[in-house]
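EI: anyone free to look at a 281-residue chain?
SC: sure, send it
EI:
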Amino acid sequence: MSSSKATIKDKSTKLEYTFKSDVLFKMLFVKYPNLLKRLVAVLLGIPLESIEKFQTINTEMPPEEIGKKFCRLDINMIVNGKRVNLEIQVEDKGNYPERSMFHWAKMFTSSLPAGNNYSLLPKTIVISILGFKQFECDEVHSDFAPMEVNRHEILSDKQRYHFFELPKLPDVDSIDTSNEKNLWLALFNAETEDELEKLISYGGEVMSQAVEAYRGITATEEFRYLEIMRARARHDEAQAIMNAEMRGEKRGENRSDEKWQDVVADKVARIAELEALLNQK
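SC: here you go
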């Protein structure tokens, strides 16, 4: 009886790491390209079997890069000749649509060797999984393309943005489990062992493989070390933003640094917590 109670307690506890961790996100999908391929197919709404060419371009995760502030842990791919960028962003740092456009432009322009015809530029797609609400709508998924505002005529099919807002997703017990996209998004939203177990029961082999990969990676010292490096980088980033806002306030702008003081304090506490856990291991 006591062991049964312990199991129930385990399942209700918060996950030490969630799928929203960009270090986990990058490590998991680089190490398990079959899961990445399936996720991309689901998010783009295309049949998995239609993907004949699939390649991840930026697989490296050097600790010195992860430890830099403002470092992105996105995933760049070539999918059937198209360029696809996938990123998870938990915190709203402002101007996210503009940031997405900037990274789309860099990826799009770097795809054409000098001297080649513009017609050879590939279709370039940015997929963003967001841990915050970005748009004033109820839909979880927003799909953008440049178009004429009156005729709604698409300017080009080579520019596309997909945003998935996790806070708008219902809880695990309320999602439509027949839709695999909902299962993947619920996985990114999961906060407890109980939610993971439910997703395994709903999603079968695919969710089981994803959760098994998650548990394997989060148990490694490599992941824990990189997560500490990432936490330090987030602290440095928050400190840099706070300092910039304080300089703006000194120039007479109406801004408060209280928000960023809280953010920096949270980052320092998280770093200490992660280092203590690593030392225990």
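EI: Confidence is low (pLDDT under 50) at residues 1-9.
SC: 👍
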